[in-house]
Write a structure and sequence with these properties.
The protein has about 160 residues and is mainly alpha-helical. Helix content is about 70%, strand content about 0%. The chain is flat.
Length: about 160
Amino acid sequence: MTTRAAWESKILVRVNKDCERLALHWARKGDWSLLASHVSATRVLGTEVRAFLAAVLRQEVRRPNNRAPTFLTRREKVYRASLVYEAMERGVRKMAAIDKAAIKTGVDGRTIDRDVAELASTYQLFCLERDRVSKEGRRDLSSARYEVSGAALTPHFVS
């Protein structure tokens, strides 16, 4: 196996493990949709996933009655709140921003107002981090790359 192929296989294994952990995390909370997607998309399942699926099929593990919101629900909340915050940064009043987001997403304005209140502290942390990065300035990635010297292009090095 070449070095590049070995490196790519290590990356794929790591990504697969991260996806597997995320799917298991949400499955234990009661949202089995990510686990179902993971099982259908991958050929190899880890021992934890196999043990969890076996327990579910034996009906030893059941969905909790008061389960947390699903991954998709959380993502939709963040999207609705981000629409409001982006509009407010452009100078739109909060209630007008909520009304625009309600029209765009087809959700009641009170729901969006609740989402905005719930994610207010998260958004403040995001703004602090964004301001810190903007003060430091973006790192120029082109300067971080190596330059090839003329000596490296000689027949001794090129093989």
